[in-house]
Records
---
Amino acid sequence: MFVLETQRLLLRQYKVEDIIPLHSIFSDTETMKFYPAPFSFQQTKDWINRNQDRYKNDGYGLWAVCLKDTNEFIGNCGLVKQKVNDNFEVEIGYHINKKYWSMGFASEAAKACKEYGFNKLGLNKLISIIDPNNVPSIRVAEKIGFFKEKEVFIFDKVHYIYSEVKEKIEEAN
């Protein structure tokens, strides 16, 4: 099973038993306020199934984020193909249980996913699609080196696209 490791976290492929802790995140109204609505149990199950399909089809997807010391499931983070203005882009997405907000876990996981995308998968560009009012997600994107690229109409409303292009990293070194 795929594992990405950081100082405090393990990112791994979803398992069936992840549905309960993931649903506790996705059913929370505060956590999901930038989505159309919190997820039902079936929507959470479908989310896991879609990501398991992504692992097979794309070689990546959103992964379970677990604390390294206790193996506690605290959220998800990973890479997802998204269609933006008729082009396919790879997004770093993240959701962390609100009891772990403001502890740097989303930034730590997203940074590991960025390094994996650029260095292991050979991607040249990564994005994050962020609701303009989601200031904490904007901060995570900025902490990992992303910059606001543009505004797009996606998921039935305007979102910011934050991104980083690998060439810019190499030119800076």
---
Amino acid sequence: MENVKKRSVITGYILITTVTFLFLGPILWALISSFKPKDLLYTPSLIFTPTIANYQEAISSINFFSHLTNSLIISVSTVLICLILGLPAAYGFVRFKFKMKNSLLFWILSIQMLPPIAAVIALYDLFLSTNLLGTHLAVVIASSIFNLPLTVWMMRSFFQEVPLTLEESAMIDGCTRIQAFFKITLPLVGTGIATTSIFVFLFSWNAYLIPLVLTNRTTQTLPVAITGFVSDSGVMWDQLLPASMLTVLPLVILAIFIQKYIVRGISFGAVK
């Protein structure tokens, strides 16, 4: 039996290592190649003297920090708007009864399933007519539209975990429903708020089509800006690779600090 258990453990580690390599292999190769000198960039050699010249060229050629600021402004603003609108909406779906409640929930979910390309032309015409095209606000509004359903559905599940009796006790002690919501319910779903904020931030940061259509040169986000290294004459890998690594870096740092919330969001409901 012990031999069988050992073989199972070894087999498990081999499978985990293989799957991890399949997912991280391309990223690691891109990271290593981003430090290669230009004359060795297209060779499979792993023996070379690392250089940061590629990073310096990439940062200067696309005005990296300006696009980084744009991505942060849009992503953080999207998170705030989704929380401000999504938290009361999710709470209302859990605590109140009204007609066509389930139909409205399904309609909200259908917005999440709508591919951005199906709405991008309408959004372009809307923001063009309102003189918002090319502004941060246009992208924030569009991004919020697509991420608000995710906020409502995720927070609805977390609100369902909070017993109604806690709010009723607070209201018996003199709190209004709004006070009970802010003083009792919201602190209890803090993990859910953090989890939802993380997912909305990730989706907003990685968005490509909407920012591509609604921004201009001064308001472009990082995922859009780095496509400038791809042209008809070819791909500037020596700059595209370091720019891609710098674009991913904020997400990696964020994931390291909030990984427990990500796991919480992914596994939510599995052992409820």
